Amino acid sequence: MSSSSERVDLDGNPIKPITICMIGAGGFIGSHLCEKIMNETPHKVLALDVYNDKIKHLLEPDNLPWHGRIHFHRLNIKHDSRLEGLIKMSDLTINLAAICTPADYNTRPLDTIYSNFIDALPVVKYCSENNKRLIHFSTCEVYGKTIGSFLPKDSPLRQDPAYYLLKEDDSPCIFGSIEKQRWSYACAKQLIERLIYGLLIFMYLFFCISCFCFPIFTNILSLTAEGAENGMDFTIVRPFNWIGPRMDFIPGVDGPSEGVPRVLACFSNNLLRGEPLKLVDGGESQRTFVYIKDAIEAVLLMIENPGRANGHIFNVGNPNNEVTVRQLAEMMIQVYSKVSGEQTPETPTIDVSSKEFYGEGYDDSDKRIPDMTIINKQLGWNPKTSLWDLLESTLTYQHRTYAEAIKKVIAKPIAS
Ligand code: NAD
Ligand code: UDP
Questions:
Q1: 185 in catalytic set
Q2: Domain membership flag for residue 9
Q3: 12 alpha-carbon distance from chain centroid
Q4: What is the ipTM, given to two decimal places?
Q5: In-domain check, residue 137
Q6: Is 241 in the pocket of ligand 2 (CB under 6 A)?
Q7: Contact (CB, 8 A) for 307 and 268
Q8: 237, β-bridge pairs
Q9: Which ligand is nearest to the CA of 83?
Q10: Ligand 2 centroid distance, CA of 287 (Å)
Q11: Range of the domain at 211
Q12: Of 15, 75, 150, 249, which one's alpha carbon is 20 to 30 angstroms from that of 222?
């Protein structure tokens, strides 16, 4: 770890050590963020989650170099009175907690809405009331479908970025009809974004009107200005398919046998078991994938450059790593064969309908390319890792972590 005096922000100012209340720290993104903060900064983390398996290596044993800088609090933010106290003790709160696996959006829409909107409300409220900075994790899914997806398949306009590039301050949010419950997640995330953004505008207007109407109270307002500015201390992150080690679970090994994780873990599971990879509705949807370690660099820049990050919504993704889901499957098959030394399966992929795979109410985002203007301008961040390289390191991890366990699961006789 570097000492605090050696570390400076993007404007050359020394970075002071802070305490971070990280909600959902035990998940995929949280575990990488905790690791980065422990390894490279002097900051303290109050790590809140219902699980800690993915950060156990950071918590034990007692002689780790960062001992005393990370404390795990096992709690469910739905109903735990410790939450406000932990936010008050911190300089910054990062909220990662969410149900965020598409298989849940159409099958458990109410849980999805509660988790992504209702449960996030107290976090926003406590931050706002206690003048604490908040970095809230939203999603690229708030953009929904592209405008181009409504054009005829052969329309040349589909190649025009104006019809597909997703811009924070410009693009509309286009969801499917109400019976397409897939969009429960995007709607809930959008509403919490709007609430946070609304608070930001409200505090700004309050400040401007106060200054205009009551110049006589300038001195008093110079005190409350601190409060108003604190009220604006929000950053919203829209991740575009961050992937890497520790993402989700492998069904039947470290998660439920019938569970359906996100695509990286679904395809990893198929590869580990030597099964064909399942392409939902032909695998035609397009995604851009960014390596978790690149994306975490962006989050650290947001943490340590509040003056540049506050009041902004940031797309965080890698526009250069675009593939169709079918191409992703083909690439993962090749990479897995390279890292495991195993032959590629005879039937590498099969097509399944979305109804069969996810059930009623599934729908999909057609294409997700992040516009990078805002994050470039504010934080100078760019992703570095190619899709091939990130798959190579991730599938090496998956093979090393799960191959033996899968063999044992497969060898076990099924109880009749
Ligand atoms: P994850 O599921 O691995 O992590 C979420 C963590 O939150 C889990 O450890 C879970 O136990 C915890 N949590 C959920 N509800 C909780 C509660 N009530 N109380 C305490 N802890 C709770 O997911 P992730 O990929 O790390 O995603 C983190 C955030 O980023 C989420 O808000 C998600 O919507 C957003 N996001 C991620 C991606 C991505 O590419 N990984 C894409 C879009 C959005
Ligand atoms: N998908 C697939 N096979 C799988 C799992 C997912 O074809 O086994 C597809 C899914 O329909 C979607 C894409 O992969 O088009 C990405 O899915 P993911 O679960 O990662 O989440 P999303 O990007 O949709 O939020």
A1: yes
A2: no
A3: 28
A4: 0.99
A5: yes
A6: yes
A7: no
A8: 137, 314
A9: 1
A10: 9
A11: 98-246+290-321+368-386
A12: 15
In short, whether 263's Cβ falls inside 6 Å of ligand 2 is yes
Please give the distance, rounded to the nearest whole angstrom, from the Cα atom of residue 95 to the centre of ligand 1: 9
Ligand nearest to the CA of 355: 2
Q: Give backbone dihedrals phi and psi of 198, rounded to 5 degrees, phi first.
A: -60, -40
Task: pLDDT tens for the chain, 416 residues: list them.
Answer: 544 458 999 999 999 999 999 999 999 999 999 999 999 999 999 999 999 999 999 999 999 999 999 999 999 999 999 999 999 999 999 999 999 999 999 999 999 999 999 999 999 999 999 999 999 999 999 999 999 999 999 999 999 999 999 999 999 999 999 999 999 999 999 999 999 998 766 665 665 666 555 554 443 333 333 334 445 599 999 999 999 999 999 999 999 999 999 999 999 999 999 999 999 999 999 999 999 999 999 999 999 999 999 999 999 999 999 999 999 999 999 999 999 999 988 899 999 999 999 999 999 999 999 999 999 999 999 999 999 999 999 999 999 999 999 999 988 876 65
CA distance 166 to 342: 39
Q: Is the CB of 247 under 6 A from ligand 2?
A: no
pLDDT at 214: 53
259 inside domain: no
pLDDT in tens, 336-346: 999 999 998 88
Percentage of the chain with pLDDT > 90?
87
pLDDT at 223: 33
- For residues 169, 174, 180, 182, the Cα torsion angle rounded to the nearest 10 degrees is -30
Closest protein CA for atom 17 of ligand 2: 263
CB of 80 within 8 A of CB of 62? no
Atom number, ligand 2, closest to the C-alpha of residue 325: 14
Taking the CA of residue 300 as centre, how many other CA atoms within 13 Å lie in the half-sphere pointing to its CB? 23
Of 126, 185, 291, 336, the catalytic one is 185
Tally of domains in the chain: 1
Ligand 1, pocket residues at CB < 6 Å: 24, 26-30, 49-51, 76-78, 96-98, 100, 115, 119, 137, 139-140, 239, 241-242
- Rounded to the nearest whole angstrom, what is the distance from the C-alpha of residue 264 to the centroid of ligand 1? 15
Ligand 2 within 6 A of 364 CB? Answer: yes
Ligand 1, atom nearest to 248 Cα: 3
| Bridge partners of residue 255, in order along the sequence | 251
Q: Give the alpha-carbon dihedral of 62, 63, 67, 73, to 10 degrees.
A: -20
Q: What is the position in ligand 1's atom list of the atom closest to the CA of 185?
A: 34
Structural domain contains residue 360: no
- Tell me the CATH number at 372: 3.40.50.720
